[in-house]
Design brief:
single chain; 198 residues; alpha/beta; 7 strands; globular
Length: 198
Amino acid sequence: MISKSQLAIELSRISSFSQPKIKLEQYITDSEIAAEILWQAYLEGDVHGKVIADLGAGTGVFSLGCVLLKAKRIYAVEKDGDALALAKNNINSRICSFVHADVKEFNKKVDTVIQNPPYGTRKRHADREFLIKSFGIADKVYSIHKISTARFIEKITKDYGFRIKKILKFKLPLKKSYPFHTKKTAKIEAGCWILEKQ
């Protein structure tokens, strides 16, 4: 079985965006943080042998992690065809299905959702769409958000009959990806909310 450190190394090797799209809030998910979240999900019994949806899969970091941690089936759902092409290139596994669709169109029931949705800085409430979809298709959800949105997440979680089991907090490094970025790397206060159906 792969170790957590090996998982982080494998995830660091994937090809990422050469021309990210700001309107979709495309950023590289840090491999160490992705490994931390995936490892926690694995320890909770939410990956191995489970059916997973990676909503807004991007270049496939979470999907690849789920392959390495022996999920039963993964659906990498991504509306951007360029990102999905990269994900297909990054993941060579028959257990991963690549779904070219908006998350609103995906309706398969799964055991676990793992997602790093847009934070709503370009399209207001973009993260809300992801949460509502995940609550409708899974009983366990791992979702990354800015810490500043904690009250909103707490309310929507309760409204949809879920509860917050745990929050993994971290400083998420965002590398300079767009012309308006002034720093080489900016760190934002973020967390992965582990949510479960009541």
